[in-house]
């Protein structure tokens, strides 16, 4: 029996994008349920790679972001020890990529997706905690804590790294693990400091006590996103939170201790002016997990959360578009058969991304001076060696895959 109705758990980026794709390109009726009481607003600025922008264009969302964010043609990677450039992540090949990259606020991306859903007549139901599911030969039923039930042909778990769908129904023993690394991020107006900040649009400084990302989030380049990633003991929470009161000042002092140096004199002007710092512990999943069971499948971070490497949103959108294409071209096949085919096409690319992200994060924790010198040389060599491969990755598009099974 052809699939016509989808239950989507998670009203974030992956869930909203899934509903848009399945409504627009598959003519499904979609029901979205989010455990939070309202759209999530916490989060920094995300890097939308050329892949992500092509998929957002495919979903007819990109036009809502054209006046947002800061176009990024490359990310400079520099040594905190010397202040010198080590290499570059390059998005300039428009012939291959069609788009550069875009640094945009996470909430702005989510708003654009939710606005598109509203235009399609699809609502997100908030405050919905799923408690159980049951399956028959051709349907799946989800039940919620408030007593509500919903029936559909399949269920998508798009509820992030701490996914209830994964934890309750697909693979309870596969739990997120803390990386030992946390992200401290915030924003500031740099209108008066522009001449003191020697970056084009985005620069990542790699150092002895972590890494520091500086990136503009608006086209006039007056709004600066500051993201520091450093080794941190377990912070006692799996969710991000805005640091308050005296802890805010203590965190700024720690960032100054880690990142202020004669090689980057502007850091001492930037960090004290950050409007409000958020602390976000970084978790990851093992790369050998189960992604589907019966009529349920995990997408995005629920399936393959990894340390952030600037490409996570693109990978989640890629999941969505590929699954939508498979459901469109092979809707006469069994649900389990389509899910299996999806995993067959997806695993190798995701495994490669996880391996690269994990390698990068192991170099972030505090290290000695000699190791830092070695890492500067290694970073330069790795960026040069990976340049061609990264170009192919940014040009990769799941819409070019020939679907035949």
CATH topology: FAD/NAD(P)-binding domain
Tally of helical runs: 11
CATH class category label: Alpha Beta
Largest sheet: 8 strands, mixed
CATH architecture: 3-Layer(bba) Sandwich
Specify the structural class. alpha+beta
Number of strands: 20
Number of domains: 1
The low-confidence runs, each spanning 5 or more residues with pLDDT under 50, are none
**Shape call:** globular
Strand order of the largest sheet: 6-5-14-15-16-13-18-17
Domain FAD-binding: 6-356
Keywords: FAD, Flavoprotein, Monooxygenase, Oxidoreductase
Protein name: FAD-binding domain-containing protein
GO molecular function, one term: FAD binding
Provide a compact summary of the structure:
Helices cover 36% and strands 26% of the residues. It is an alpha+beta fold.
């Amino acid at each position: 029996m052809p699939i016509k109705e989808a239950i989507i758990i998670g009203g974030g980026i992956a869930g909203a994008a899934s509903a848009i794709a399945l409504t627009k390109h598959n003519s499904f009726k979609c029901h979205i349920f989010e455990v939070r009481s309202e759209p999530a607003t916490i989060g920094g600025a995300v890097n939308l790679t050329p892949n992500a922008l092509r998929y957002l264009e495919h979903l007819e969302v990109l036009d809502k972001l054209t006046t947002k964010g800061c176009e990024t043609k490359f990310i400079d990677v520099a040594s905190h020890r010397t202040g010198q450039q080590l290499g570059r992540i390059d998005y300039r090949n428009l012939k291959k990529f069609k788009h550069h990259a875009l640094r945009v606020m996470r909430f702005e991306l989510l708003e654009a997706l939710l606005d598109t859903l509203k235009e399609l007549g699809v609502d997100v139901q908030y405050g919905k905690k799923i408690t159980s599911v049951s399956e028959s030969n051709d349907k799946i039923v989800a039940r919620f804590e408030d007593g509500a039930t919903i029936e559909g042909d399949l269920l998508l778990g798009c509820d992030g790294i701490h996914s209830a769908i994964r934890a309750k129904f697909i693979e309870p023993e596969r739990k997120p693990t803390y990386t030992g690394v946390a992200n401290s991020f915030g924003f500031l107006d740099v209108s008066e400091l522009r001449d003191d900040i020697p970056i084009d649009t985005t620069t990542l400084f790699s150092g002895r006590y972590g890494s520091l990302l500086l990136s503009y989030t608006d086209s006039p380049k007056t709004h600066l996103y500051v993201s520091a990633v450093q080794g941190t003991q377990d912070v006692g929470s799996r969710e991000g939170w805005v640091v308050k009161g005296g802890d805010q000042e203590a965190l700024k002092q720690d960032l100054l201790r880690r990142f202020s140096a004669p090689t980057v004199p502007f850091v001492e002007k930037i960090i004290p002016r950050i409007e409000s710092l958020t602390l976000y512990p970084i978790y990851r999943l093992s790369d050998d997990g189960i992604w589907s069971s019966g009529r349920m499948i995990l997408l995005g971070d629920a399936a393959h959360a990894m340390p952030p490497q600037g490409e996570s949103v693109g990978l989640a959108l890629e999941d969505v578009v590929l699954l939508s294409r498979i459901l469109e071209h092979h809707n006469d096949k069994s649900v389990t058969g389509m899910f299996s085919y999806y995993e067959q096409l997806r695993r190798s690319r995701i495994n490669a991304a996880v391996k690269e992200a994990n390698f990068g994060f192991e170099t972030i924790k505090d290290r000695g001076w000699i190791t830092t010198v070695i890492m500067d040389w290694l970073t330069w060599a790795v960026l040069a060696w990976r340049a061609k491969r990264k170009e192919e990755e940014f040009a990769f598009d799941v819409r070019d895959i020939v679907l035949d099974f």
